[in-house]
């Protein structure tokens, strides 16, 4: 969550310290549209329809705020972001993606029409004690903001994706923009911050797709080579393989195999000694120990192997009914519990293995020796 938080604080600082600066007024005439264009390009390239829809809404809000004193577009945008947070991304120019953007734009137009034709309660300021005096928002903005913040925060926790987190901070930016009032530099600054947060979220999402394994949540092989390249002249690499994994798949099915990989990955993520775990491929994982030699890494790998060996994994039954049966069974079948073991091979950078590829090959050979010696052991 921290990149969005940093940008929000930067926007608040700019509108507080440099609100009357001429350079800031000149900047807001140019850069928001440039940022919006860049964000829309990223949303199109990475098929993020929700980001594209909200970016278009932010552009409309900025133009609605500047010439008039209505915040109807902002209120509808807040509610729209909350709805979009629950939906899924589509292609920006697919019919569902276009529907998201079109629906948000039409809703904002309807909000503007409602403002001119009634519902005065929505635009009545709240009492001075809520919100604070410095946050000048109408009742409609506060209600829409609370609903949207709740929806985006819930989805950010549930999905833990950069886009959902970006939508949360965009809601904060829109609320700050509305509090600045019409035709102000501060409103445009906060809209630009919200746009930048979304563009950064798309970049983070693309990075996660390239460098993180979706099944286990561990960094993927591309991140492994990046870690090795930055490890310096002293490091150790361990190759970890799940024993008898093919038998698990053949006997229990691929769903159980995926559960085993996730649970082993969770244990690998707790490795001590400063090691960092990666998904190498299939049932193989890699652990890198920057600044450590092979002998220094061995005790931590042995502890890891014993911890996985002592674990018992409860297998979740696949295909359980969504609703319980009308008649409860008298005896409840206990969940299946499986034990898993791993074999580990470790090598270190040396004159005979000066590159990362050479170290990984040596660790792979050590892994082969560990399996040949009877599995469930650490070899060097």
Could you characterize what this model shows?
Helix 4 packs antiparallel against helix 5. The chain has a five-stranded mixed sheet with strand order 2-3-1-6-7, sandwiched between helices. It has a two-stranded antiparallel ribbon with strand order 4-5. It has 380 residues and is of the alpha+beta class. The two termini are 40 Å apart. Strand 2 (276-281) and strand 3 (284-290) form a beta hairpin. The model is unreliable at 118-123 (pLDDT under 50). Helices cover 59% and strands 9% of the residues. It has helices spanning 2-17, 22-27, 31-45, 49-65, 72-86, 95-117, 139-159, 162-180, 185-211, 221-229, 245-252, 254-268, 294-310, 356-372; strands at residues 235-242, 276-281, 284-290, 312-314, 337-339, 342-348, 378-379. It has two domains: 2-211, no CATH class; 221-316 and 336-379, Alpha-Beta Plaits (2-Layer Sandwich). It has 14 helices and seven strands.
